[in-house]
Amino acid sequence: MTEHLVELQCERRGQVGFITLNRPRALNALSLDMVRGLMEQLLAWQDDPAVLAVAVRGSNKEGPFGAFCAGGDIRFLHQAGSTGDPRLEDFFTEEYALNHLIHRYSKPYIAFMDGIVMGGGMGISQGAALRLVTERTKMAMPETAIGLFPDVGGGYFLSRCPGHTGEWLALTGEAIGGDAALALGLADGRIALETQASLWEALGTQHFADAGAVTALVKSKMIAVSAYYISARAQIDQYFSLPSVGEIVAALEAADGEWEHDTAATLRKRSPLLLSVVLQQIRRARSMELADDLRMERDMVRHCFTLRPGQSETLEGIRALAVDKDHTPHWNPARIEDVTPAMVAPFFTSPWPAYAHPLAQLA
């Protein structure tokens, strides 16, 4: 048995392929082996006429569901980035190719987004035909807290959220629940916690005439809710539509409201440089197709880890959050006001000619 099959449980029952992320102690954080296992299995099922659809879930320490995926394995990323491990390059190239496959998958891919769905977990769920949330879903793209940016196609799917909520989610890393995810177009339906296991089993035991019948069954279990809304939507659009991070923070700090001050305080904790990079990422991605966004993000992540030796915001952010756990990252520059356009521009310059780009084949 290869290692990735320990961290992934894959089986076909009936007419559906089932994947359970099985690394509960790490909240199912994606390793390179898991990325490779997912890609291998999805490609095999895509060509298998006996498989009509694919369902994916996470496991927790007590069993299935409860935690979908907390993102990429940031301890591995820190170790690999600090030592020049070439697997770092492989990880991002293969992860982004997997994200693209899921978005373009030829069969219904159904994501049970129960519990924590963050970072890389969003990458393997946002492309799903059906994105299912529950009352305990906790969703976020929190990368600015570790000096990174919302990758795995984050530029693409966050920029397509209503108004300027994509900028808000990307810059702050705010965690939202299932209903907010529905309001922002980051989920398709809510199902009750007690329904998940029975629905999962039904997918493997019922006979389906075609793929449409599989999705029809899932949709029949969704909870009808009359309306979804984001309480701070007006403020989000007012502030996060401003031209620069400096102007956003200045306006928030000049306001009287508690929400404004709390939001400004959150932004002050993030990497000043990556905040400016992220704002530009989201706004560039708004007019990009998925493949072009993923290529841009592959350029950006190369810069984050390998093109700034000795001064990587990402390695410093991971160190402070997950390695030393002192929660006092030393950002460079330290203040939002000290970031210049010349510091931001290199993130959007590709280190590869177009024909040699590691994601050149994506369409």
From TrEMBL:
Keyword Hydrolase tagged: yes
Molecular function per GO: 3-hydroxyisobutyryl-CoA hydrolase activity; isomerase activity
Pfam families assigned: ECH_2
Every Enoyl-CoA hydratase/isomerase domain range: 16-348
Keywords, sorted A to Z: Hydrolase, Isomerase
GO BP term, example: L-valine catabolic process
Top-level taxon: Bacteria
Record keyword Protease present: no
PANTHER family: 3-HYDROXYISOBUTYRYL-COA HYDROLASE (PTHR43176:SF6), 3-HYDROXYISOBUTYRYL-COA HYDROLASE-RELATED (PTHR43176)
Protein name (Swiss-Prot/TrEMBL): Enoyl-CoA hydratase/isomerase family protein
